[in-house]
Amino acid sequence: MVADTEGRPADLAWGAFSDAPPWVLDPDAIAWRADVPRLRTKVAADLPGLTAPGRLPPSARFIRVNRRLTRALVPWLARKRLGRYASDTPGADLSKRLAPGGRGLAHLHQAGPDHLVSEGSSPRS
Predict the structure, then answer these.
(1) Is the pTM here over 0.70, yes or no?
(2) If we measure between CA atoms, which residue out of 76, 79, 80 comes closest to residue 92?
């Protein structure tokens, strides 16, 4: 254990997270420390390629979302083109098809904004 003259750990400036650590590191005794600058340079060079968005979204999610949207929109579009749909807005029908459990989002729309946030209160309070 190495400590400086003020009683603080010697590694406080470069590696410790506490004034009272369970141990103190000696930088000369760490064998892999010499490789750190090379590894940092390599990671910095690789990072843009690792964090760049892909050209296509993840395939399973893409297929699942497209399947749900197709099942919701195609029947509505077919009925609309055949003149069998009473309204131009699919509203509740679409929300029932998209939401799991069949209940949909129509109940929130019908309840109005007062149902979600009472007047005079803030959603963040």
Answers:
(1) no
(2) 76
